[in-house]
């Protein structure tokens, strides 16, 4: 834990008692603050009571006594309209902050030179965060990883010059962190997202820009127009240290990917990505280029970076390689809950035996039609089966498997019979999981278990077991 001492002896309001909210409550209390914490949901208040805290109804509290409002990132700050606690805080002039801001203040007070890498972007930030942390650990560094991925930031150990914090940030978290000033800040990309919470793409991009604008070293993608404009603005700023990054060769890029090599302008090829099986696809090339630039900023040599990338296992449920049976590769991409997400996997492989379906999103899989040529056969599961059968008819061979278990059995049968160099049995559902599973994690876990059973069933019989 990182105790928050910046509000020691003062009274603060805290709204939102989910995972990060409870973490923040514990850290503030450990630092000596008096916290009036509340949540509109009784089950969240019950979790706080179970943790030893007594909720305080902020609707009847004296807001003039509060030094700040600490807001959970899931609570609306501006759009579609400010939460009622935001209005109360503004009425008394109390600053509105989040857990990332509290950590930033602790770093500034305790160890202002402690390495602090912060990653944001519409897509790819979790993979990039995990990859940077993996490289630094492989290089022997003490690494604390969290934020929007895994562990809430205030549950991580405190900032220290010998420890590197690698933190993923959402736009919601950046919006509540006015003094955020990482040693290395990364903005991977910007595409329309969360506009219900930010109003316009321009507002959303401006929030993302704050992260890199406040960074000592700014890593900025240039593969989309909003990010490219940010990179250009930052490079015009006096004293700026900006590294422009692209997934493909570009005269504007300082680091880019070409023929599966990471290239640094003026230095040539640095890292061979071909051994990095968990980093297939152009999108992962971009993620790898960012991780390379972040690691180099901390003086990790290219050879160490390359070895670490080759051993990176990937993230669970995101193009996760879960096993092999002869030439057949099994890939768990359960996190692909819409067509845009599934496109990344389909672009990364050929000779695909595609397990697809669930609770369909608007538009279904029609946007993926240009990639149907990569699919050897599809196995339809869940409530979307009729809709997807209509889309695939005449374009891709398919069968109605119904359940994930039946689909894994059928895909294994057909993939092992294929004469392709590397048939891929791919779960990339392009659908929500809620028709058959509680969430995409449960669906991916089930796929992993089913693949393990298939591999066990095909294992060669040990000589001593023969009868």
Per-chain topology:
Elements: E1 11-15, H1 19-30, E2 34-38, H2 42-50, E3 69-71, H3 84-92, E4 96-97, H4 99-110, E5 116-120, H5 125-138, E6 142-147, E7 163-168, H6 171-175, E8 184-187, H7 195-198, H8 201-213, E9 217-221, H9 225-235, E10 242-246, E11 255-258, E12 261-264, E13 268-272, H10 282-297, H11 302-311, E14 320-325, E15 328-332, H12 339-348, E16 352-356, E17 359-360, E18 375-381, H13 385-392, E19 398-402, H14 404-417, E20 424-427, E21 431-432, H15 440-457
Parallel strand pairs: 1-2, 1-3, 3-4, 5-7, 5-8, 6-7, 8-9, 9-10, 10-11, 15-20, 16-18, 16-20, 18-19
Antiparallel strand pairs: 11-12, 12-13, 14-15, 17-21
Helix pairs in contact: 5-10, 5-11, 8-9, 14-15
Describe it.
Helix content is 35%, strand content 20%. The strands form 4 sheets. The protein has a 9-stranded mixed beta sheet with strand order 6-7-5-8-9-10-11-12-13, with helices on both faces. Strands 14-15-20-16-18-19 form a 6-stranded mixed beta sheet, sandwiched between helices. A 4-stranded parallel beta sheet has the order 2-1-3-4, with helices on both faces. The chain has 15 helices and 21 strands. The protein folds into 3 domains: 11-97, NAD(P)-binding Rossmann-like Domain (Rossmann fold); 106-311, 3-Layer(aba) Sandwich (UDP-N-acetylmuramoyl-L-alanine:D-glutamate ligase), CATH 3.40.1190; 320-457, Mur ligase, C-terminal domain (Protein-Tyrosine Phosphatase, Chain A, Alpha-Beta Complex).
């Amino acid at each position: 834990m990182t105790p928050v001492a910046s509000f020691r002896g003062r009274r603060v309001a805290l709204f939102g008692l989910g995972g990060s909210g409870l973490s923040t409550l514990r850290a503030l209390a450990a630092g000596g603050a008096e916290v009036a914490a509340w949540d509109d949901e009784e089950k969240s208040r019950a979790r706080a009571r179970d943790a030893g805290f007594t909720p305080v109804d902020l609707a009847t509290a004296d807001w003039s006594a509060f030094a700040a409002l600490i807001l959970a990132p899931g609570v609306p700050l501006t759009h579609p309209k400010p939460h009622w606690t935001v209005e109360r805080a503004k009425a008394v002039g109390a600053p509105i902050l989040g857990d990332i801001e509290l950590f930033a203040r602790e770093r500034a007070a305790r160890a202002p030179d402690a390495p602090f890498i912060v990653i944001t972007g519409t897509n790819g930030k979790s993979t990039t965060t995990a990859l940077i942390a993996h490289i630094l650990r492989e290089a022997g560094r003490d690494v604390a990883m969290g934020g929007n991925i895994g562990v809430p930031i205030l549950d991580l150990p405190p900032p220290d010059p010998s420890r590197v914090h690698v933190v993923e940030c959402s736009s919601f978290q950046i919006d509540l962190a006015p003094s955020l000033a990482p040693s290395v800040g990364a903005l991977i990309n910007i595409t329309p997202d969360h506009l219900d919470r930010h109003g316009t793409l321009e507002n959303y991009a401006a929030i993302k820009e704050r992260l890199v604008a406040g960074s000592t070293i700014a890593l900025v993608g240039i593969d989309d127009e909003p990010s490219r404009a940010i990179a250009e603005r930052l490079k015009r700023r006096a004293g700026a240290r900006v590294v422009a990054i692209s997934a493909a060769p570009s005269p504007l890029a300082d680091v880019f990917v070409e023929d599966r090599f990471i290239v640094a302008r003026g230095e040539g090829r640095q890292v061979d990505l071909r051994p990095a099986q968990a980093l297939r696809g152009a999108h992962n090339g971009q993620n790898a280029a960012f991780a390379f630039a972040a690691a180099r900023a901390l003086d990790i040599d290219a050879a160490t970076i390359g070895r670490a990338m080759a051993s990176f296992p990937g993230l669970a449920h995101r193009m996760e390689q879960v096993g092999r049976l002869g030439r057949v590769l099994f890939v768990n991409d359960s996190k692909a809950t819409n067509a845009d997400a599934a496109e990344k996997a389909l672009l990364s492989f050929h000779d695909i035996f595609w397990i697809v379906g669930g609770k369909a999103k608007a538009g279904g899989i029609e946007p993926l039609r240009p990639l149907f040529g990569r699919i050897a056969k599809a196995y339809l599961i869940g409530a979307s089966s009729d809709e997807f059968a209509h889309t695939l008819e005449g374009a891709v061979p398919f069968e109605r498997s119904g359940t994930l278990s039946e689909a894994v059995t059928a895909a294994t049968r057909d993939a092992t019979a294929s004469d392709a160099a590397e048939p891929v049995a791919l779960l990339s559902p392009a659908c929500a999981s809620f028709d058959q599973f509680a969430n995409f994690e449960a669906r991916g876990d089930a796929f992993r278990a089913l693949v393990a059973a298939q591999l066990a069933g095909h294992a060669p019989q040990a000589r001593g077991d023969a009868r």
